[in-house]
Prior knowledge:
This protein has 611 residues and is of the alpha+beta class. The protein is built from 15 helices and 23 strands.
Amino acid sequence: MGLRRVLLLGEGNFSFSAALCGAQDTHVVATCYESEEEAVGAAGAARSIRRLRDSGAEVVFSVDCTKLEEHFLPGEREFDRIYFNFPHCGRKAGVVKNRQLLARFFHSCTEVLAQEGEIHVALCNGQGGTPADQPRREWHNSWQIVAVAAGAGFILSHVHPFKAETIEGYKCTGYRSQDKSFCVEGALNHVFTRSTAPLCFTPLSCKTQLGGQKVSFQVPQVLVDKINRGFLEENSSHPVRTIKEKFSAGLSQALPLHNTSSCLPLLHQGHPHGVCHSNIFWITLSPGEAPSTEKMSQNPVLFSHFGQDTDKNVQEGCPVPQQFYLRPSLLPHAQAIIKKRAFSPGTLQVLSGPVFRKCRITPHSMPVFHEMFIVLAVSRGTESSCMQMLVDNIKTTLNSLHQGVSGVKPTISLQEAASFGTELNDFAAFERQLGEIQHFLCVGTEADPSGSCVGVIRTAPDELKSHELVVVSVSLNLDLLAMLLCGISDWRMLWTSDRRFLRQFPEGELRLFKNFSLYPPSYVHDVSFWLPDGEEFDEVAFHTLARRASGEMVVSIQLRDNFQQPGTGRRSLCYRVTFQSCDRALGSREAAEMQLHFREEMQQQLGVTLR
Length: 611
């Protein structure tokens, strides 16, 4: 490792810099805002400055922390660490002026901080405005340091006590521009790092197999950063692949297992029977690329979905509907295997891959996730025992995974679909649309003892059964399992482009996830509008539009008011929209721009009238 360059700003008597100057492989650049003549007048400053210079450190005076690029030539920048202890505008400056100081400081740091560098800002207890402050000030009365830093592209990655007593020779000065100490009891050191850049959602075309030929289509904007990510590929260390491989290994000990993943087409044709139109990502193929009816008839899986007998239309010479959509489930692929009898009784067929569903915005509702679909054909009369064997195997693997990660045994329950409560998560609710379910597989943790549905168990519908065999299938949501096992609170983190996420899972090892973006700021906006006369409001379309307009920065949408105007009968809705990122910096200005864009899109796409 090379020489670490450390920049210290706003030094009063240089005692903090002097304490650092002896560190190995560290070059210290100590600065203050005052001139040299003013600085040496502070008690103990002259002695600290001599010590710094004797050790080879640089001491620079009259440095403005809001204009750092003016003080250091391009070749002298790239600091690995920047310290700013107890920043203050001086005298009796209020919180607003100090926020402005911090904002200009963070913007200035973007020019001189190394890509993997850190910014350390020590504040008195309560000033930062984060939950780490005890007691915590009201937000408006704090320096709002996380939101201020986000405006310059930085995220809070660590926060810990500032222990002045452990720093040899350190004496805090500068309170209200005097040779007096700040109150450092309960003070906190806030460590900021660079955020990944905002994603650029440029239009993306994707190629896939459809009806025996290659076709291309425009990827829906909300999925641009999620298509073809390769999380399940052999060289991936992503948690969803690790969990899939662990389940496969456990199942293969009980029965022979055959994996099918790579050749499953992304697109289907027609309309999935029983599934709400609003939950589907409809696709328009590139001009002239729709496959012929003849080719489609050779691939009934592409248009025979969830019990809809569209392939019969092909056999009778009827036209195949020219509607295409991204697969919302691997169930039709499993049904195609069953129909063709392309399996060996007693052998597990495992299908896996991403599936796509429009849904409302919640921390656990995901428009794309990785499904693991397990199919087993067994002799009639043995289906109950075989189903129990599958469930026991899955439970054993889950227990092993969870105990390996957190040391706590999870609560795993199998609940009959007929008696399952109405409070279904979006995964379970959508699965009910796909067809009859025998059981829901639920996993509870200490944080959520009631449990969350992560899988469903079915037997094949009557038309797919034979006299001798019964087909049992299990569908697992690998993304929900990764969240539960690794303590990930927001599904969006699974798709982050920030390398700090995958670094926590070296060589596919599952661990409890540690957030690298602490206390991300949130921004609340209300939007109210009149609905078009006589039209039902599509809430899923509203949520999907919010995802698209914000680039998945909306974390919550709550209905605040539903008003019907007397006399005219016109309906007005008011929603509270909360913008918050889980992995990158989101400043107030960017959130406000997202809100304006969302309002414009609502008028154009949903036909509402803003109030």
